[in-house]
Design brief:
Leucine Aminopeptidase, subunit E, domain 1, alpha/beta, 19 strands, single chain, six-stranded mixed sheet, eight-stranded mixed sheet
């Protein structure tokens, strides 16, 4: 799928589908005026009669409209440029392409998208996301990406950057959508190795022997139940000054989570291939950051395991010793992601980081508190957290901070070991999980992002197929590109 800038006759040059973004102030657009003139005023009359809506994301289709050299006209509402939420541009472009992608098309042309460079990058990436489905193994696809998406009225740099972002989001989505018999710790490590080689990043892979030498007892404890060998992967990108401390991105990579002996019910386990979405997010960020040549030093650390049941699986009541030396009582084997991250965060400290951010589908409690569309932010450094949140807001992605008061730490105090891996009772579970992680960052500026809600869509949305969403890849690349 290519993205190209189009500067020819937008109405008389043939294409398989013409997508027109319609704002409330549509009559002020020279591009839409051309389309309206070519249709002998039909487009304008339909808008004025409310047959074509300008309301955000409202789709209207017309087959072989008279006066236009296209087989299909798709209009999508953009609302008011003044008051529209930043997500409108990416979601509208995605919804339009999802509509067009129900069959194979050679060329889709995009017209009428006028916004800031950041929002236009979102529109370009959104279009690329909207036409790619989760049906990786279906003979008959539900969505067919076009060979080329042409954009009218967008500059080359913005288009290139948006295409890189869209490709990175789809890269993350593909990893999340792969079934667990295809994506497991070793194969996900191979994906990271391939990405590193492609972009000349330094890649370091720790196998079981190395993990044992490094005393990664928390991660290895989770991995014991599976015949799949665990991995810890470190990727390094040097885009900043040689002596500048890196930003470290840590990703939870539980490639399948049965819950262990605290076993999940069938409905809760069915989508647990997505429990590695944190690692997929980090890889997507690294992919785009390298291609955009961001001027930062970055280190990615991925903890890759399966959480299954066997005669050697870790049990309730076990005590694990993390790489930091801290001992952990196991009160719930389905609270395994924080154990993996505990060792990864300790490895992150070895990188002498400027700051750390971890991404994880960590808790159902965060979904209960914030819903399916919002990622939870928890931090020991509100300045760093605020930068993340402000960039997410500007991109149209949703985050929200949760409190990290010291008294939450009391809930993870152990009686036999230093700490336990869950809090007291059912309340505040997302926060006590974050307080557990905070035990392993040694005061370094750190933000934990619980993406359990938006990382995986149980059902399709108008702008995205069900499955992996690639949430926050675009936000973090925009943040690092500032």
């Amino acid at each position: 799928m290519r993205c190209e800038r189009f500067s020819g006759d937008l109405v008389q040059s043939a294409c398989d589908c013409l997508v027109v973004g319609i704002e409330d102030a549509w009559s002020e657009s020279a591009e839409i005026a051309k389309v309206n003139l070519a249709t002998n005023g039909l487009l304008g009359r339909l808008i004025e009669d409310d047959e074509i809506s300008t309301k955000p994301l409202k789709i209207t289709t017309m087959i072989a409209p008279t006066g236009l050299a296209t087989k299909l006209l798709v209009t999508v509402g953009l609302g008011s440029r003044v008051s529209a939420h930043p997500s409108v541009y990416s979601c509208a472009a995605a919804a339009a392409l999802k509509t067009a992608a129900v069959k194979k098309r050679s060329c889709v042309r995009m017209v009428g998208f006028q916004a800031s460079p950041m929002l236009l990058r979102g529109a370009v990436s959104g279009a690329m996301v909207g036409c790619v489905g989760q049906d990786l193994f279906r003979k008959v696809k539900s969505l067919y990406p076009p060979d080329c998406i042409e954009w009218v009225g967008i500059d080359e740099d913005t288009l290139l950057q948006g295409a890189i972002l869209g490709d990175a989001v789809n890269f993350s989505r593909r990893l999340v959508n792969l079934p667990p018999n295809f994506l497991f710790p070793e194969s996900l490590a191979e994906e990271a190795i391939g990405l590193g080689k492609l972009h000349s990043m330094e890649v370091e892979v720790w196998d079981r022997t190395k993990l044992e030498i490094e005393r990664c007892g928390a991660l290895l404890g989770v991995a014991r139940g599976s015949i799949r060998e665990p991995r810890l992967v470190i990727l390094r990108y040097n885009g900043g000054a040689a002596d500048a401390p890196p930003t470290v991105l840590v990703g939870k990579g539980v490639t399948f989570d049965s819950g262990g002996y605290s076993i999940k019910p069938t409905d809760g386990m069915l989508t647990m291939k997505c429990d590695m979405a944190g690692a997929a997010t980090v890889l997507g960020i690294m992919k785009a950051a390298v291609e955009l040549k961001v001027k930062h030093n970055l280190v990615a650390i991925l903890g890759l395991v399966e959480n299954l049941i066997s005669g050697d699986a870790f049990k309730l009541g076990d005590v694990l010793t993390a790489r930091s030396g801290k001992t952990i009582e196991i009160h719930n084997t389905d609270a395994e992601g924080r154990l993996v991250l505990a060792d990864c965060l300790n490895v992150a400290l070895d990188q002498k980081p400027l700051r750390i951010v971890d991404f994880a589908t960590l808790t159902g409690a965060c979904v209960v508190g914030l819903g399916l569309d919002i990622s939870g932010l928890m931090t020991n450094d509100e300045t760093w957290q605020n930068e993340i949140r402000q960039t997410a807001d500007a991109c149209g992605e949703y985050t929200w901070p949760l409190p990290m008061h010291p008294f939450f730490t009391e809930q993870i105090a152990g009686k036999i070991a230093d700490i336990k891996n869950v809090g007291e009772g059912r309340y505040g579970g997302a926060i006590t999980a974050a307080k557990f992680l905070e035990e392993f960052v040694d005061g370094v500026p750190w933000t934990h992002i619980d993406i359990a809600g938006p990382a995986f869509l149980d059902s399709a949305k108008p702008w995205c197929d069900a499955g992996g969403s690639g949430t926050l890849v675009r936000t973090f690349v925009e943040l690092l590109s500032k």
